[in-house]
Specification:
The chain has about 375 residues and is an alpha/beta fold. The chain folds into 2 domains: about 15-20 and about 270-370, Aspartate Aminotransferase, domain 1; about 25-265, Aspartate Aminotransferase, domain 2, CATH 3.40.640.10. It is built from 12 helices and 15 strands. It has a 7-stranded mixed sheet, with helices on both faces. Strands 11-12-15-14 form a 4-stranded antiparallel sheet, covered by helices on one side. Strands 1-13 form a two-stranded parallel ribbon. Helix 1 (about 25-30) runs antiparallel to helix 9 and helix 11 packs across helix 12. The chain is globular. The termini are far apart.
Length: about 375
Amino acid sequence: MSTLSEFHPSNRILMGPGPSDVHPRVLKAMATPLIGHLDPEFLKIMDDIKVMAQATFQTSNELTFVVSAPGSAGMETVLVNLLEPGDEAVICIHGVFGGRMKDIAERCGAKVTTVESPWGQPIDAQQVKIALENNAPKLVAIVHAETSTGVLQPLEEISQMVHDAGALMVVDAVTSYCGAPLKVDEWGIDAIYSGTQKCLSAPPGLSPVSLSEKAVQVLEDRSTKVQSWFLDLTMVKNYWSGAKRAYHHTAPVSAMYALREAYRLVLEEGLENRFKRHQENHLLLRSQLENLGFEFLVDEPFRLPMLNAVKIPEGIDDNTVRHRLLSEYNIEIGGGLGAFAGKVWRIGLMGESSDANHVNMLTSALQSIL
């Protein structure tokens, strides 16, 4: 076999549903020499990451940490630890990722009741109320920012209903985290997970997670083993806390270096400034796309600022345009999923990809192609 040549990827402009562009400081951090995952200096990095995860989730939850796997593993971590066979769960579905939560909950042996809304629309709080009145769920799970549709889901009213019913509030914040307001403690969220590759602008491969004291108590009161050894928080939490860190797995050291630096960038900018920046660039994109004749999929009050779902105009071929954007302009945007395949583009303005230059480059390229 001949020796393969060194890999030199194209310098892409990442404006799809993730990953997003990464700051040079984060890339530099990844090149830091390795140390052991139980080295005292690495344990200090873990402590730093925990403190910054708490600050960005806006929570004081003690069990706040990072799963050594991408956002889907964060989803699975929360559900497999909180659900046991025979438990009831209400899963809200308004896109691909609510459906994924349903699948995982059923694999846990839970009895699942779904609350659904058409893709492109938020979940109706009154439908959740009806589901709570007709069932006795252990938890209610909902997606805050549905990546497949561009919907930003209001949470506070639903969270109050869930707590009044004595259930846990579980939230998917993979796309919204560090790009839109998200207040774990104030909104009464009991379990939340995200990913690093979107508005955090770190490489994919890690999943920040936080559980409330109530959720931790549910975990400790389990009568059966967690079905996943690797994701079992009864063991993982001993690696992330306590005077004596119990070995659990070999952490992805370089990815953790990168995440620590990405968190530093977030907090240097400030959460409120970061939220404002994402919203302002969304409005700029909206103005320019509407001038080109595009329509947004989601009604304005429920639009995500960091993931813009726009309808593909009649007569325009999805694959042709996205291929030309990539091959001629090095710009990546996302196509539609499921029923929206070929009908919708998903344009990301996440983290380092959320600035006026990205908006102007994309709309200029689209104008030339179309």
